[in-house]
């Protein structure tokens, strides 16, 4: 269950990171409220996940999910470059997340 909570926390991290763009430097009220709300939810869920997961693993997975999701949504929503090198390095982060999960769960 803690892994599911951690994944949801990572999804909220993506939401607040993308919200930063829409909030225009936290100057737009409605996007700012959404951004801050997503940040708080993400942190609370991370705090719950680390009650059962090692902090180093949980934090790395949380930031990895956020980094991958934000990078991919940057490509889709904000026309950021989708170069092959960029996609390869995003894939490396995904492999790291999966590897940490396998090692932490005793599957490897």
UniProtKB/TrEMBL annotation:
Cell compartment(s), UniProt: Cell membrane
Membrane-spanning segments: 33-50, 57-78, 84-103
Task: List the membrane topology term(s).
Answer: Multi-pass membrane protein
Q: Which GO terms describe its cellular component?
A: plasma membrane
Alphabetical list of Pfam families matching this protein = Multi_Drug_Res
Where is it mainly found? membrane
One GO MF term attached to the UniProt entry: transmembrane transporter activity
- Which keywords does this chain's UniProt record carry? Cell membrane, Membrane, Transmembrane, Transmembrane helix, Transport
> Which named protein is this?
Quaternary ammonium compound efflux SMR transporter SugE
- Name of the gene this protein is made from: sugE
């Amino acid at each position: 269950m803690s892994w599911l909570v951690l994944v949801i926390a990572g999804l909220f991290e993506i939401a607040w990171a993308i919200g930063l763009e829409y909030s225009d430097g936290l100057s737009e009220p409605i996007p700012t409220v959404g951004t801050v709300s997503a940040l708080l939810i993400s942190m609370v869920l991370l705090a719950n996940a680390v009650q059962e997961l090692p902090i180093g693993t949980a934090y790395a997975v949380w930031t990895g999910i956020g980094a991958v999701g934000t990078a991919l949504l940057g490509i889709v929503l904000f026309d950021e470059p989708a170069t092959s090198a960029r996609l390869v390095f995003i894939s490396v982060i995904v492999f790291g997340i999966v590897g940490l999960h396998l090692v932490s769960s005793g599957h490897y």
